[in-house]
Amino acid sequence: MKQSFQVDERGYYGDFGGAFIPEMLYPNVEELRSRYLDIMAEPAFQKEFQDLLKDFVGRPTPLFKAERLSAKYKTNIYLKREDLCHTGAHKVNNTIGQILVAKRLGKNKIVAETGAGQHGVATATVCALMGMECIVYMGAIDIERQAPNVARMRMLGAQVVAAQSGSKTLKDATNEAMRHWINNPVDTHYIIGSVVGPHPYPDMVARFQSVISQEMRIQLQEKEGRDYPDYVIACVGGGSNAAGAFYHFLDEPRTQLIAAEAAGKGVNSGHSAATTFLGKPGVLHGSKSLLMQTADGQVIEPYSISAGLDYPGIGPMHANLSYTGRARFFGITDAEALDAAVECSVLEGIIPALETAHALAVFEKLHAKPDEVIVVNLSGRGDKDLSTYQQHLKLND
Amino acid sequence: MNRITKLFAEATEPILNVYATAGYPNLGDTMTVLQALQEGGVDIIEIGMPYSDPVADGETIQQSNQVSLDQGMTVAHLFEQLQAMRQTITVPVLLMGYINPVLQYGVEAFCKKCAEVGIDGVILPDLPMAEYESEFQAIFEQYGLYNIFLITPQTTDARIAQVDAISKGFIYMVSSASTTGAKTGISDIQETYFKRINGMNLKNPRLIGFGISDRASFLKASESSAGAIIGSAFVKLLGQAQDLRGEIVAFVQSIKGKK
Question: A29, A21 in Cβ contact below 8 A?
Answer without folding.
Answer: yes
